[in-house]
Amino acid sequence: MSDQYCYPFTLDRAGIEAVLPHRGDIFACDRLVIHGTHSYTGYARWHSDNRILAGHFPGLPIVPGVLLIEGLAQLAGAGLLAGGDPYLKSLVGDWVGVLASVRNCRFTSPVRPNVDVEFIIQCRQMGPLAVQVTASVSAADVAVGQLEILLAYASNEQISAALQPVAVAAE
Q1: Does the structural domain 9-162 have CATH classification 3.30.230.10?
Q2: Which one of 59, 102, 123, 144 is CB 3.0 to 4.6 Å from 109, fit for a cystine?
Q3: Residue 171 predicted with pLDDT over 70
Q4: Residues 6+ apart with CB under 8 A from 139
């Protein structure tokens, strides 16, 4: 994408996958409308055959709140990467936004599988490597939650180093 952006623009599922590393059952993003560098409307859907939902709850399946939080993190990360966030563009190398904190969450109604979930997202730079993300969440035109998280920018090198096993000294 060039340095010039024409807002709004939309990423479909394939477009979101092109900027995010997530795959498999954890990835539920379907569409992202980028209104500006820090303003997005995202859509996600968790299907009833998703293995993560199998035990939550048998006979009365609902999408776990942690998946709604993860969906928000993925949609906001894709928006920041694809939407021309000026700070992220200034970083050299491969960087990704990782969930650093769940600051405030309120769920007001359960979300059933196979329902489109809409996230109205606003981002605000909080520091050199941190972005506050807030969202109003609805499903089937019903408000289901208010979420606030913190994303931290991390390089692929930092993530790889953090995943290395730590040697334990012998006693």
Answers
A1: no
A2: 144
A3: no
A4: 109, 111, 112, 115, 116, 117, 118
